[in-house]
Amino acid sequence: MSEQPPYLRIADELRQRIAEHVWEPGDRLPSRAQIGQECGVGENVVRRAQELLISQGVLEGRAGSGTYVAEPRQRVRMVRSSAREQPEGSPFRADMKAVGRQGDWESRTDAKVPAPAEIAARLGIAEGELCVRTAYEFLADGRPVQLSTSWEPYDLTAGTLVVLPEGGPHAGAGVVNRMGAIGITVSHAVEQPEPRQATAEEASLLGIQKAALVTHIRRTYYSDQGRPVETADIVVPAAHCEIVYEIPISRA
């Protein structure tokens, strides 16, 4: 069996000191040189260990100040379930209300955006075909907790009242309800979650460390005719949110 990498050993040591209350939330850690000397490793090893713990929400780095033990933060629960699609209201707002928080979002829509190859494949259209792209930043008590970029085929909604997801009489109604307003029945969605590190832009928008762990969900809604009507990339910071899937059980 291979030996544990030194930075993981140091990360475990730092985590143990926090668990044993050697350092309390809000405490500033000793310098990397001091920790390295105590543990018999170089500063780069300590830096990697601290970066790992920062990505996990155990520590936080403050520019020009040092590294601190992070304050405990309740993880926001994100429920993924087709059963939560509602005729009125937002599942996100319902989730936030359930944990005593105010849910809201900001969005920016660009119409007639050529579809990149991956998006085109997910929507079953040709690369370069026009789409309506909407970027969302979801907020809990004013703090960002989720990002989403949605793509819809332009020819599907062009000339209708739902062409802009966040505009018109059906603004903010969600994909299922908006498509229903133009006679398209959404029958199901497919989601593919995977862990990865945040990009620099995502980290900036979410207020997390660069390369912190996130869950990236590729979601696609399908009509009852089997046509993809919307696809989205959803990004959720792992240290701040937990994702829960509800599985509806049909009874014969």
From TrEMBL:
InterPro entries: Bact_HTH_transcr_reg (IPR050679), Chorismate_lyase_/UTRA_dom_sf (IPR028978), Tscrpt_reg_HTH_GntR (IPR000524), UTRA (IPR011663), WH-like_DNA-bd_sf (IPR036388), WH_DNA-bd_sf (IPR036390). The keyword Repeat does not apply. It holds the Pfam family UTRA. Residues 4-72 form the HTH gntR-type domain. Gene3D superfamilies: Chorismate lyase-like (3.40.1410.10), Winged helix-like DNA-binding domain superfamily/Winged helix DNA-binding domain (1.10.10.10). The keyword Translocase does not apply. Keywords: DNA-binding, Transcription, Transcription regulation. This is GntR family transcriptional regulator. It comes from Streptomyces tendae. The lineage of its organism: Bacteria, Bacillati, Actinomycetota, Actinomycetes, Kitasatosporales.
